[in-house]
Amino acid sequence: MTTCREALDLILASAAPLSARPTGLFDALGLVLADRVVSPETVPPFTNSAMDGYAVRHDDLSPASVASPVLLDVLADLPAGSIAAHEVRSGTAIRIMTGAPLPAGADSVVPVESTLSEGNRVRITAPVKRGANVRLAGEDLREGEELLPAGFVLTPASLGILASVGIAEVAVRPRVRVAILTTGDELVDASAKPGPGQIRDSNVQTMCGQALAFGATPVPIPRVPDTREAVTAALARARAEADVIVTNGGISVGDYDFVKAVLAEAGAREVFWKVQQKPGGPLGFWLWDGTPVFGVPGNTVAAMVCMEEYVRPALRKMMGRSKLLRPEATATFEGDFRKSAPDGKVHLIRVRARRDGDRVVVSPSGPQGSGILSSMLRSNALALVPADATELKSGDEVLVHLIEEPEDR
Ligand code: AMP
Ligand code: MG
User: Fold this and answer.
1) 292 close to 317: Cβ distance less than 8 angstroms
2) Ligand 1 probe mutation, 299, 301, 307, 376, most atoms within 8 A of CB
3) Which residue is closest in CA terms to ligand 1's atom 14?
4) Strand order through the sheet with 92-96
5) Test site for ligand 1: of 206, 231, 300, 305, most ligand atoms within 8 A of the Cβ
């Protein structure tokens, strides 16, 4: 049987970055730049005022003070977005707003707080340094300099930088479209009242939510009953609408588990089926004419753990990310965990991780049955109990995957 490590390696070897496409800035946050960006322009494009005040010649000022203020004639008012019609000559000033281009002749700006307005004149009551409150053309960015390297994950600041130099579109790797196909005769919608023996489809929510949180675009495919025909039709639809397919349920060895058979019939190549892990042991992975297909088991936690541990890294690789995996830590275990029997499987147990000085301490977030979603709700990390271990005791060290950002809760 495939180990967790082998399964991940096989998946990542099959997942290739999507081709870049031109994308508007509003849609590019969090996406990965395909090429480096060089500035076509200089920022600020012109020398301008950093304050509301008066544009002056510094030579006129000294020694201005409250006791002996300097009096200047005010030639004009200059709001941001306007160009001065006058030159600032000796003995004159132009009233200027933040962002307005510095008028010819002026070299400094006196903030309005250091002045007294007197009709057409202004009294300067405090000196400023030469060049004070002036933002020089090009002091932020220079034409020809590299703004962002290839592979950069676009942030709000980087989108602002791009806009400031007139780049409204960038080549980025697109969000992966992930088809989520839940299967099962027993399932009804969240809004429906289940009949006898039925339960609500919660996995479509957890899995679509995860896909979205991973930065991909979930494409929910209408849920299908456990029939070969329905599964066949839904898979064809999923392939047409998405870059990656994740089926849910129907992947084990039950009489109504058709996903595997239908994929084989359609000519998909099985890369592996079954992983030495719990939950999520029946996980399978296929390549269907190049489309990666994950067959994820239906138990609620198994579905989420497989999305987290296997689908997420693949999606990130396809979106051009270089960091594919969550942060890892060697944590100190607190509590008691025992496998019911030695099974040679890695157990991914739901834990709550917290920092205690330099250490990360983890303890189980609740019962560990693969259908118990409430303990997933309370967890922020997965602890990996090694295949050859049978128990964890307080004080033991354990490897953890931190699946939530610390500031999230
Ligand atoms: P399966 O992998 O189809 O054999 O399903 C395993 C268990 O997970 C069964 O108890 C199913 O009822 C449950 N299950 C399957 N799909 C879902 C789903 N979409 N939402 C909630 N539970 C599910
Ligand atoms: Mg099922």
Assistant:
1) no
2) 299
3) 298
4) 108-111, 53-56, 92-96, 70-78, 121-124, 115-118
5) 300
Strands in 130-209 per DSSP E: 134-135, 146-148, 169-173, 177-183, 187-188, 199-200
Give the Å distances, CA to CA, from 183 to 83, 255, 294, 309, 376. Answer: 66, 14, 13, 21, 22
Q: How many residues does the chain have?
A: 409
Query: Does ligand 1 lie within 6 Å of residue 115's CB atom?
Result: no
Confirm or reject: Cβ of 201 under 6 Å from ligand 1.
yes
Does residue 409 surpass a pLDDT of 70?
Answer: no
| Model confidence pLDDT, tens digit, residues 246-263 | 999 999 888 889 999 999
Over the stretch 336-391, which tens digit does the pLDDT of each residue have?
999 999 999 999 999 999 999 999 999 999 999 999 999 999 999 999 999 999 99
Fold of 48-135: Molybdopterin biosynthesis moeA protein; domain 3 (2.170.190)
Going from the Cα of 253 to the center of ligand 1, the distance in angstroms, rounded, reads 13
Cβ of residue 182 lying under 6 Å from some atom of ligand 1: yes
| pLDDT for 143 | 97
Domain boundaries of the chain, sorted by first residue: 4-18+175-318, 32-43+140-173, 48-135, 328-401
Q: Which CATH architecture has domain 32-43+140-173?
A: Alpha-Beta Complex (3.90)
> 252 CB under 6 A from ligand 1?
yes
pLDDT reported for residue 406: 66
**84 vs 18: CA distance, rounded Å:** 51
